[in-house]
Specification:
With about 140 residues, this protein is of the alpha+beta class. It contains three helices and five strands. The longest helix has 22 residues. It binds guanosine-5'-monophosphate and zinc ion (ZN).
Length: about 140
């Protein structure tokens, strides 16, 4: 299924041009227009799923395989020093395009945005952690 007003449906279908790094029956991987680092790319399924919760399970598994393939090549070719996979769900989590996508973000020593994914850890004791585990697993 696709959604007519969705920009990633159009990009994935090739109706809007993109710098495509990889394509198969299920996915198109493109360079991000506003990259956080050199090579920042997006794994976009050709079918429309708004987010991880809607994503088909088989497609979910394959998305990671595609990210591995493209990310590995990218690190090699661009001589990156590391790589982040990032995937936002919901506005509060930073999602701005509501068609599932996974970011591939190569990382480089001494590059800008060095702290893009840093956070201040919450202070939680063992009891609080165990309580959370119980909530999530019951
Ligand atoms: P989100 O914040 O939803 O996780 O990520 C959306 C990403 O899509 C952003 O990094 C943004 O730069 C990128 N983006 C938005 N519109 C376009 C577009 O038309 N073309 C490309 N190549 N990237 C886009
Ligand atoms: Zn879409």
């Amino acid at each position: 299924m696709r959604q007519d007003d969705c920009i990633f449906c159009k990009i994935a279908a090739g109706e809007i041009p993109s710098n495509t790094l990889y394509e198969d029956d299920l996915f198109r991987v493109i360079l991000d227009l506003n990259p956080a680092s050199k090579g920042h790319a997006l794994v976009i399924p050709k079918e429309h799923y708004a987010n991880l919760f809607e994503l088909d399970e088989q497609v979910a598994g394959k998305a990671l395989q595609v990210a591995k393939k493209v990310g590995t090549k990218m690190v090699d070719v661009l001589k990156a020093d590391g790589l982040n996979l990032l995937q936002n769900n919901g506005e509060l989590a930073g999602q701005t395009v509501f068609h599932f996508h996974m970011h591939i973000i190569p990382r480089y020593k001494n590059a800008p945005n060095a702290d893009m994914l840093r956070y201040t850890p919450l202070k939680m004791n063992a009891e609080e952690l165990a309580e959370l585990k119980d909530m999530i697993t019951k």
